[in-house]
Amino acid sequence: MNRLAVTLAPLILAASAFSAQAQDPHAGHTMPAQTRPAPAPPSQTPARPPAQDPHAGHVMPPAQNPPATDPHAGHRMPAQTAPIDPHAGHDMPAPAPAQPNPHAGHDMSAMAPAQTDPHAGHDTSAMNMGPPDTPTSADTPGRPPEDPLPAAALIAPTHAADLVFGAEAMAASRRTLVRENGDVRTTAVIIDRLEVGFGDDDESYLWDVQGWSGGDINRFWWKSEGEGDFGGEFEEAELQALYSRAVTPFWDLQTGVRQDFRPDGEDTTHLVLGLQGLAPHWWEIDAAAFLSTDGDLTAGVEAEYDQRITQRLILQPRLEIDASASDIPELEIGSGLSSVEAGLRLRYEFRKEFAPYVGVEWSRAFGETADYIEARGGETDDTRFVVGLKAWF
After folding, report:
1. What is the value of pTM for the model shown?
2. Chunked mean pLDDT (size 10), the chain, 393 residues
3. DSSP secondary structure string for all residues of 313-333
4. Is 88 helix (H, G, I), strand (E, B) or coil?
């Protein structure tokens, strides 16, 4: 029995192997390596049991095809280097520590709250905030108040440099400074009117010239006026020599003498006290009072204004008023308002120093002055067309 079993055992094993090969259709085939798909993310994988491997328990022969070779196999690849630090080898200073909070550890709870606006909720749109700050004078109401000088500012000497260089040396230096920078001597000659007048029955001429020489404060001033008829003698002429001193930035106080010249030889000398300057709205004013050697007191006022039409074309209204404190029969002047002259001249400035003009002038005598003129057969009212020249140098 034992011998029979040993004899049948190889046959049984061969039959078992043949039976297994007949059941597997792929038995003995060379199968390529199976590539399994990557598992889906856990959130997308359905919850079901895993599939059973159909080859579980089968004896698979080794694959015949070799695995895919590396395309870079046998190539000499350069060694990869890490990026270089641009600050490598530099001595970098240590970063500054953070600044401590100056209020760290302070109890801030007791601080007073911010002041509220006293005008909060008020309508201030209609409030008058006062005049603007005008840079003109410390006395102008529009400027803020200025504190008075401290007492110590008035204790030291007037010129501090005197303590260093000596009062005598500095006095000479200040005189030189004034002479070279602030006391410039200038001279001017102004031909205000040099004209010819055309009336109803005669032609006349007139000059009104003045000039000065000196500095900004003190000047010698001279003036000359005269008129006459063509074909006859001049009617009158005068010449003034005056000392002029600036008393404000726009006004000069003038005093001196005036000499009158007349064809009848009745020359008269007067003392003069006048005021000349620029009034508000750019009116040029020349006013003076005259006291003659005979005791006669007269006065005259002249006013001119330049109205620019263009940079070169200028319209100038002019007004002259004469008055007397007493009657002067030999000069045909009555007391009170004696005469008025009003003119309008249009000039063209070819240059500032040279400007011809044309215009019209009306004159009238009043009071007893008019009576004197009518008594000798003259006209108390006269209108003339004038052509003249205004110049200066």
Report:
1. 0.57
2. 50 50 49 48 48 58 51 57 58 59 60 55 54 54 76 80 91 88 87 94 92 93 95 88 96 97 89 97 97 96 97 97 94 94 98 97 95 90 96 95
3. EEEEEEEEEEEESS-BGGGTB
4. coil
Number of other residues whose CB lies within 10 A of the CB of residue 353: 12
As a whole number of angstroms, the distance between CA 327 and CA 269 comes to 17
The alpha carbon dihedral of 122, 123, 125, 126 has a sign of: negative
10 φ/ψ angles, rounded to the nearest 5 degrees: -60, -35
Q: CA–CA distance from 361 to each of 56, 302, 344, 345, 386 (Å)?
A: 140, 14, 6, 8, 7
Taking the C-alpha atoms of residue 248 and residue 62, their distance in angstroms, rounded to an integer, is 128
Count of residues making up the chain: 393
Six-digit token string for 324:
């007397």
Using one digit for the tens of pLDDT, what is the confidence trace for 229-258?
988 778 899 999 999 999 999 999 999 999
> Per-residue pLDDT tens for 143-172?
777 788 888 777 877 888 888 999 999 999
CA distance 27 to 32: 13
Contact 201, 230 (CB under 8 A): no
Nearby residues of 258 by Cβ (< 8 Å), 6 or more positions away = 238, 239, 240, 269, 270, 271, 272, 290
CA nearest to 305, candidates 289, 316, 321 = 316
* H or E stretch at 252: strand 251-261
Instruction: Establish how many alpha carbons lie within 13 A of residue 63's alpha carbon, considering only the half-sphere containing its beta carbon.
Output: 8
Q: How far apart, in Å, are the Cα atoms of 93 and each of 84, 87, 88, 90, 195?
A: 20, 12, 13, 9, 91
Tokens 């080898």 — which residue?
A: 89
What is the distance of C-alpha 240 from the center of its chain? 45
Half-sphere exposure (Cβ direction) of 355: Cα atoms closer than 13 Å: 23
